Amino acid sequence: MPFCANHCLFCGFYRNRSADEALRDYATHVAQDIAMDAADAEPVHAVYFGGGTPSALAAADLHRLVSTVRDRLPLAPDCEITVEGRIAGFDDEKIDACLDAGANRISIGVQTFDTELRRRLGRRADRASAIAFLHRLRERDRAAVVCDLIFGLPGQDMESWQRDVRTCVELELDGVDLYCLALHDKSPLALSIEKGALPAAASLEQMARMYAVGLETIEDAGWRHLSQAHWAAGTRERNLYNQLVKAGSDCLAFGAGAAGMLDGHRYVLDSDLGSYQRRIGRCDKPIAVLLPPPPNHHARDVVMAGVEQGRLDLVRLDAATAPGFTDALAPLFDQWAAAGLLRRRCNTVLLTTAGWFWHGNLAGSLFAMIDAYLGGVDHASHPTLETQGTHDAR
Ligand code: SF4
User: Fold this and answer.
1) With contact defined as beta carbons under 8 Å apart, do 193 and 144 qualify?
2) Which atom of ligand 1 lies at the shortest distance from residue 11's CA?
3) Ligand 1 site, residue 4, Cβ cutoff 6 A
4) How many other CB atoms are there within 10 angstroms of residue 27's CB atom?
5) What is the pLDDT of residues 241-287, one digit of tens each?
6) Which CATH architecture has domain 297-376?
7) Closest C-alpha to ligand 1, atom 6
8) Which tens digits make up the pLDDT trace of 279-333?
């Protein structure tokens, strides 16, 4: 849903300003997009309405789209259906429309509860309104309620960060995502910092400490670590979509600018609204980019799924690469263990807190090792991951 009420300073996903008529028209085309792919779909385990801001849609359109997914796609009986939203404008009618149509997980991009920080980032609701909103959502008791928080924001100190994490615990949410700020060059946030309108973002070292404090705070409260940036309280939250995508599962894309994956082939739909809608009108799947699988993509999937879970199964990795591959990695693992990033247990590598923080770079190094070991690859054309657990609001 590439529409938002305004452009939050830190965000690299903003595309179009929401306008009622454009949203209605767009929803009609997305519904048609879903219907076009329905015949080819395998059983679907997770659906994610992300953005942008899906909650910018009218209640009737939210109901229509969630219903279309349920009517047209072969959903697994336990399929997770997430609708992502913002506090501002996500009223009771819209929430009920999502739940009545079958959404079973609501993800709210809170980012921070700190009123002053929220204002600086372009968020309208203050701390009290954000808390009251999440309370109301929880009280319905009809879906998993999760929220995103970001650490490393300009002007955010450790006390404010820890208070944010504790607030999620006190609210008894079902899940929380703790994301590291990704400061994109030329983003409005980077430019504001450059101009001196905002203080600097946290340094990498400060971010590492904030990740560790967030992890400790949430796990002291008894929450389960589901994947690098995701925690769950109780049994309701599963966070399927993120985990499946990171593990390389097939993913069907619907909507302008949406990205999908089929058997390792990544594709992106036309992000220009007019052109997307015209092509949908002609029943032409509006694919704009189609990339071949990266080399050794099944082995990369094993690595990515493993580091996301903080647990790399070396038997599986050998099976996905070549016998003896993980023996050849022993000196690297010893070096990482000495640096405090992991520990070995039989045929498993377990990440420490520092390892979780650096998981993207560890995965990138392992990708390079796989390509070098299996041979014949131009590494420069397959860039490795650079950051850790960055805000992936899609
Ligand atoms: S953070 Fe969400 S609401 Fe803000 S600009 Fe990005 S996608 Fe839109």
Assistant:
1) no
2) 6
3) yes
4) 21
5) 999 999 999 999 999 999 999 999 999 999 999 999 999 999 999 99
6) Orthogonal Bundle (1.10)
7) 11
8) 999 999 999 999 999 999 999 999 999 999 999 999 999 999 999 999 999 999 9
